[in-house]
Amino acid sequence: MPHVPPARLPLLGAVLLAVLIAIGAPPTAAQTDDSVAVQTDDSVAVQTDDSAAVAPPEPVLPVPTARQLEWQRDEMNMFLHFGVNTFTDREWGTGDEDPAVFHPTQFTPHQWARVAKETGFQTLILTAKHHDGFALWPSRYTDHSVEQSPWRNGQGDVVGAFVEAARDHGRKVGLYLSPWDRHEPSYGTEAAYNQFYLGQLQELLTQYGPLEEVWFDGAKGEDAADMTYHFDAFWAMVRQHQPGAVLFSDEGPDVRWIGNEHGFAGPTNWSTVDRSTIEIGGAGQGDYLNSGERGGPDWVPGECDTSLRPGWFWHPDEDPKSVDRLLEIYFKSVGRNCVLLLNVPPAPSGRFAPEDVRRLYAFRSALNAIFDDDLAAGAAATASSVRGGAARFGPGQVLDDDLSTYWVPEDSTGEASLTLTLDSARTVDVVALQEPIQLGQRVAAYRVEVPAEGGGWRTVHEGTTIGHKRLARLETPVTAAQVRVVVTNARAVPLLAEVALYRTPPEE
Ligand code: FUL
Predict the structure, then answer these.
(1) Residue 53 lies in a domain
(2) Cα(342)–Cα(323) distance, rounded to whole angstroms?
(3) Best of 215, 249, 261 to mutate for ligand 1, by most ligand atoms within 8 A of CB?
(4) Are residues 269 and 383 in the same domain?
(5) Residue nearest to ligand 1 atom 11, measured at CA
(6) Atom of ligand 1 nearest to the CA of 307
(7) Ligand 1 atom index nearest CA of 79
(8) Enclosing domain of residue 244
């Protein structure tokens, strides 16, 4: 197509409009040929239609709650596994540790929160109590806590100091309270233990101000007594005291486990599932959790938890993952409609290990080098059709950095496509796509194309779901002045909120 500088499009649109009015042609903004840039440009639609008169597309069930939406948009959270295991070189403590082993000498949660903030993590989730039952706060319900430790003469409160530091750095806060407790004597006696657990949960929910996430781990050792946890009661108590918190477990109700601890969502990842088919801690459901279910009745988006190091707790002989590995995790979590929950285990000093800190900042720099420069900024957007010709549903909405506005093609048009025309040919290897998931998740298949030599289009990438975000990594970078996204399968009329183009800096 002829190259049209984006800045001139509104002017051309106005001229076209004037011509249309002069010849009395009906104002049609929705075109089926998206190679005709000016006819589908927003500037035409805005002057030819009363946008407000065109009904928005109906939401597709199920849709997220406000707290799920906010959680999803945060994209990266940090897990902190800290406790007696930090000092005993274990992953699963036995519950009979001497509380005296817990003695961080340079306990500095402000460092955790500052590093998290500067490297881009929103919610910080601390293991208030892991499977060993050692409580990081002075719980009145146990004799296995910081109160029995010589740390700060038994006057310390890790949870309290952590929450304060996180808030000081503008971070959100989450807490993990392991249902499996290897210290508590009532474990195995169903009513007594569940009440004990609710007592501890109530302490955490009422003593530390607002919480944004509460994490319910389904893990249970093979030697653990057979006992049912009363998750419905646990969740009811969270809702009572912390209505703003999302609840994580294998089956939600707000956020689900992604089915593995590598930090990888499936290449297809629906935020919808049928909760009634999932059993917390159940075996053989990893694949289902990993990809969700198209048309599932419940909105329960995935959280991808993994650790910066091989273990969840700090160990002297382990090293942090490489930046390349962290980038792979990022693309397979955030880039596959998942929230990344990256564990950074504080060392026995009570600070993050210096090599972990360096690795996190290097990861941040690598992300910035890719995502700081959106090559689609200033592009012209055109589309195969626009709902009712309305400007507010025009293709330009995918370039405004605003997830509340989106492109809407006409209903029932089969494949729907959106073309970005850049001011010059650029080299691209990442295409970022976002759906306005506040209206439900729709797209089931799409492809990305660039102009083919000699005319037509050439497919450079094919994918399935999009959801909140899909980062499509092209196998090889392409150099093109146009990029076209074609939605080939969707649950309802497909919507796109944002499209962006990036280039991974070539290795030096
Ligand atoms: C698992 C636990 O057994 C691990 O120790 C860790 O806490 C991980 C996040 O969840 O189920």
Answers:
(1) no
(2) 13
(3) 261
(4) no
(5) 219
(6) 9
(7) 9
(8) 77-371
Cβ of 312 closer than 6 Å to ligand 1, yes or no, is yes
**Same domain for 171 and 27:** no
Structure tokens at 395: 């293709």
pLDDT at 415 over 80: yes
CA of 217 relative to ligand 1 center, distance in Å: 7
Of the residues 336, 356, 371, which one is the last residue of a structural domain? Answer: 371
Within a domain: 188: yes
Q: How far apart are the C-alpha atoms of 249 and 251, rounded to whole Å?
A: 5
Kindly state if the Cβ of 132 falls inside 6 Å of ligand 1.
Answer: no
Predicted TM-score (pTM) of the model is 0.91
Residue type (1 letter), 40? T
Which pLDDT band, with edges at 50, 70 and 90, does 50 fall under? Answer: low
Distance 107 CA to ligand 1 centre (A): 23
| Shared-domain flag, residues 358 and 414 | no
The verdict on the CB of residue 250 being under 6 Å from ligand 1 is: no
Pocket test for ligand 1, best of 182, 312, 340 (most atoms within 8 A of CB): 312
Is 261 in contact with 290 (CB distance < 8 Å)?
A: no
Per-residue model confidence (pLDDT) at position 413: 67
3-state SS track over 60-117: CCCCCCHHHHHHHHHCEEEEECCCCHHHHCCCCCCCCCCHHHCCCCCCCHHHHHHHHH
Looking at the structure, do residues 104 and 34 belong to the same domain, yes or no?
no
AA identity, residue 393 = F
Q: Which atom of ligand 1 is nearest to the CA of 130?
A: 7
- Do 364 and 378 sit in the same domain of this protein? no
Mean of the per-residue pLDDT values for the chain?
A: 91
CATH number of 464's domain: 2.60.120.260
**Is 65 inside a domain boundary?**
no
DSSP 8-state symbol, 33: -
Residue 69 placed within a domain = no
Q: What is the pLDDT of residues 316-364, one digit of tens each?
A: 999 999 999 999 999 999 999 999 999 999 999 999 999 999 999 999 9
**CATH number of the domain within which 327 lies:** 3.20.20.80
Closest-CA residue, ligand 1 atom 1, reads 219
